[in-house]
Every structure is written in structure tokens, then in C-alpha cells.
Known about the structure:
Number of strands: 13
Helix content: 25-40%
Oligomer: single chain
Radius of gyration: 23 Å
Structural class: alpha/beta
Number of helices: 10
Order of helices and strands: EEEHEHEHHHEHEHEEHEEEHEH
Strand order of the largest sheet: 5-6-7-3-8-9
Shape: globular
Distance between the termini: 34 Å
Amino acid sequence: MTSTPVIDVDHLNLSYGDFHAVKDLSFQVRKGELYALLGTNGAGKTSTLETIEGHRTATSGTVRVFGHSPRDRSAVRPRMGIMLQESGFSPDLTVRESVRLIGELSQRADRVERVLGIVDLTHKAGTKVSQLSGGEKRRLDFATAVYGNPELIFLDEPTTGLDIQSRDALWDAVDKLREDGSTIVLTTHYLEEAQQRADRIGLMHKGTFHQEGTVAELTQTLPAAIRFSLPDLLPALPLRATRESDGKFLIETFQLQKDLHTLLVWAHDNAVELRELQSGPTRLDDVFRAIGNA
Length: 294
């Protein structure tokens, strides 16, 4: 990755009348990284993305894509691929015609057959869009976004409606694009995808960043958890624990390895079976839930 950002957002503000949707937002996306922009409902991420993509004008602040204003379509659009949450393809066009049309409009060079092969739609090339299943339409959305191997690709809920094989194939294609140098901006409600794949995450809430960083940096803001069940009438636990509604015990800790060792030694010394024992660091969805309590 180079130090020159592909996307540079500086003190972005977006207002709709009296409603301040995005508030003084600043962040950068570096070349070659997968950046996940996540947020609660109404957080402002859609407005932010629409501004970066050139579909909306900022109320104040600046946005640069490849060093240009995103409204400079001739400079930016041929280098950018966008997979929207919902497609706008004509139902009367075939799959092949739809991909070719988007390629011509985006001014990117590629072969339709190559792109259809990536998304396993070669056998549907002559099928009208209206006759595709929901998952097939989603794969067509992806095909048009990656036509020509653009340098910057926006993926908005890319795996919604896809079966597990199609999801795996899509992420394999994304990995290949990244190997070739593409930068990816992801929005998704499947937080496990962001946790597994994002280099960095911007977590928006009420128009600005609640947190930004790597998955490790975000999850380390909350304690790890140790959960287990115990038989009755036992010696006192060696660590402070709470009893949950399902009867299990919960230990929250910022020293997972140390406290788990303490618990296991206590169980061994007292011949206690820790039933249904589970332990692990905080997950991204726990961080996401905690936003509502911030």
C-alpha cells in the first residue's frame, strides 16, 4: 500500500434542511486495502458513500477520489466500480447486454465473457434480467461493478441473497482483485464478513465515527468473555462472575489468557467440570451493539 490515499474525506458535512446527516467526518482509504464503512441505521453512511461516489454534493468539507473531486466524472468514473444494494438493470435486457452496456458507460475495457465467467453467469448470458433469480441478479450486480478491474470498487451489501457457494466465489473474486491492486470499500450487515476481511473499519453513529481502526483495535475496547455452566454446591469461584438468565456464569476480562488459566487451575484442583465452556475475545457485533449504550 502507498501513503497516498485513494479516498480522502476531510471535515465532510451533509445536511438536509435542518437535519445534519453527516457531521465533520474525516477519514482516508489507502490503496489496496479493504475498508469497511459500517453504521447503525440512520448513521449517515449511505449519504457519505453517495458523496464519495459522486452522486451527492457536500454541504461543506472536501472529498477527493484519486486526488480529484468525485463530481469530476471523466477523471474518476472510469477508475471506479460500484455495486449498489439494489440493481437498476432494464428487465428486458439480457445478462450479456447489461454487462456490455455498463462497460460502455463506465468507459472500462474488458471482455463480457471473462466477467460472466467470474460470477458463474456464462450459462445465463442470453437470459433476460427479469428471468433471473434474486441471487443471480446480485451476481450480475457484482459483474458490472468489477468489469474492467477498476482501481476502486464499492460493494454495498454484496452477499445479500447469495447461497454459501456464491458467497465464497464472490470473496474469491474480491481477493483476486485485491491481489491485482484494487481498493475495496465495503458496507454490509453481515458483520462477520467485515470482521474476517476488513483491514480497517469505520464505525459510524449519528453522523460521525463512533470508532475507527482495525478489528483488533475495535474489539479490544470491550472485555473478552468466558462462559460456562457449573453443578450446584461448589467452592467459591476464583474470579468475579455474574449469573446470566440461562443459568450460565459469565466472566468478563481484559486478561483472557491469565484469567482462563486461573479458572482452569481452580476447576482441576476442585475436580469441577466446567460444562459448555466457551471463551474468546469480543466480536465486532458486540462492539456494534455497544454503540446504542454510548
